[in-house]
Specification:
By secondary structure, the protein is α+β, with helices and mostly antiparallel strands. The protein contains nine helices and 19 strands. Strands 1, 2, 9, 10, 11, 12, 18 and 19 form an eight-stranded mixed β-sheet that branches. An eight-stranded mixed β-sheet has the order 6-7-5-14-15-16-13-17, sandwiched between helices. The chain is globular and about 65 Å long.
Length: 377
Amino acid sequence: MDADIAVIGLGAMGSMTAWQLARAGASVLGFEQYGLGHDRGASAGESRLFRMAYHEGAAYVPMLRRARALWHELSDSSGLPLFRPTGCLSIGLPELPQMRRVRESVDEHGLDHEILDPDVLAARYPQHRVHDGEIGVLDAGGGVLRPELAVLAACAQAQRHGARLLPHTPVENVRFEDDRVRITAAGTEYTARTVIFTAGPWSRQLVPGLAPHLTLRPLVLTWFAPTGDPADWAPERFPAFIRDTDGVHLFGVPMMDGMSVKTGFADAFGDLSGTDAYTRDLDERRLRPIGEAVRRFLPGLHPDPVRYSVYMDAYTSDRTAVVDRVPGTDRALVLAGFSGHGFKLAPAFGRIAADLALRGGTDLDLGAMSAARFTAA
């Protein structure tokens, strides 16, 4: 037996899972088809938002609390600046469902926050063009994560605790037997007692039963240069933000590279037929809606991006991940379908996966993430 547990895919979820398993004393074998910290899946882009006041609902807050603590733990153990506390500003009309869920999150869980009426919002953060009636909810626990560094840090911590990680080793076949799992990767066969699939967009190939329920979509991120003083967009003066105005869903982070502000749309660029359809190139015309949104809502930025990048993620129909045992076997777990909002939660999901694999359960509620919800529909 080569390992107690094999982890297939070492992006955000896989690297955090390997870290948590190895620190718990399990022997871990990890497979990654590309290099560690690669930029082809959902775990890249130089910066990602962290927010506690959650647009997706208050039920996520206990998991977010755990994730935030683990982000700080990983930063401390690695010595790397993985989390930059900037706060996270949600902007929108108070009656919007997203804004109601943000308010529910802070009210139900007593989160540190501030409600900004339209006048205060416009005066304190003049970088945003505020529309009539819009409010801000400033989530003090929010901030900015550094994704590539985070994946590399989690891999390094896993290795420090004895995990064996194999980059540039694509998995070609997984076969389940009564007492083990046989994995063929880069022409070599390995065995483990349990396998955990954390393959992001490639989950459709590795866990075929999920394929009908996972849709691949590009994640397009864009960077815009300021027209005036760059200091106006520094983390100390411009929090991470997420905004819903007139049907436009825009998110962004402050200037982290000294020259540009990153913004993006969520799942607004259509679907991909498969991972082979992924491309890093976009027709310039497809970027124009983001530039138009920047012109409307962030007038202190040049409306043409200075650069862009394209990643991809797997989405479920209800935008809720699948974190469960693979149907038909007791030797496999799958974490998939994070639908563009999983990265901030990755350390918590890594802990959950380790708990499920080593103890058979977790203290966090995963009912909404059951794989059975699709077959029961």
